[in-house]
Structure of Uroporphyrinogen decarboxylase:
Amino acid sequence: MSHPLVNDRYIKATLQQDTDRTPIWMMRQAGRYLPEYRQLRAEAGSFMDLCTNPELACEVTLQPLRRFPLDAAILFSDILTIPDAMGLGLYFTPGEGPAFKKAVRDEKTVKELPIPDPNQELKYVTDAVSTIRRELKGSVPLIGFSGSPWTLATYMVEGGPTKNFSEVKGMMYGNPKAMHLLLDKLADSIIVYLNAQVEAGAQALMIFDTWGGVLSPQAYQEFSLRYMSKIVDGLNREKDGQRIPVTLFTKGGGKWLDIMAESGCDCLGVDWTTDLSEARQRVAGKTALQGNMDPSLLYASDERIREEVETILASYGHGNGHVFNLGHGIHQFVKPEKAGVFIEAVHELSKKYHQ
């Protein structure tokens, strides 16, 4: 039995409907800045042990909601679940980040990659979604997510973290046929994966294009946005009579918001390098906007945090269609109390923009 949503501000804002105040959630809100998360992770053994255990993934997802009056929950998982399920052997090195035992650098390897079955190789994700949805009891909506094809391809081709993107850009420019084949296969995998999350209970979806901003404008359209648009076209946008909003977020993509708004998504994430007033002009009412405080502001004084919240609210201006968030994930060294100040400030200061 699915519970009716008690707090639907986030859903309404992404669909540009009226709300009494601006909803807020934080990218990476379930994670390393919370002492209770660090304790659970130590007990679990590793990051992937947390991700692949639906009960533990549920517990991590709920932790920030017990502390803060957030307007949405986001599935605790990793963007690299799909490449891992394709058999590339994901592992994490402390201080280094994610890496794969096998890199994808030629057409033959791309052709051999399977499209993972979300009810088999990725069942731990759909099980986590249904567990979280049940435990939320309709208190707030649950956001499901995936990495974008370009972002997943970056990790798969590089084989791990990179500063200059030489392997992935080398393949993109040197063997575009293989790159398009890979991106197409990833887009197909993501469509199936996200639709399975909706089937399991996700009430909204988000696509994280972490590395889209490293591309030239032309390459961004050809190798990133094109495939995110394909995904948006392939998603189930309604379940049980409820619209499933879709948000696209390209870090460093503020200059392309107008063309991103043509993708058919409901909402666009904006990082802190773009003013929301400018972003609002560029999307011209086609989509809602999410963002966009610099996460580093959470190291500042309470007064400075409140001041920045007011500045961002004023920048977006009056009316609906704004989901408050950080411009990227919350840092692991931020004190949880500062996140509390931030969330409270948004709830309190945003009311006047919705009268």
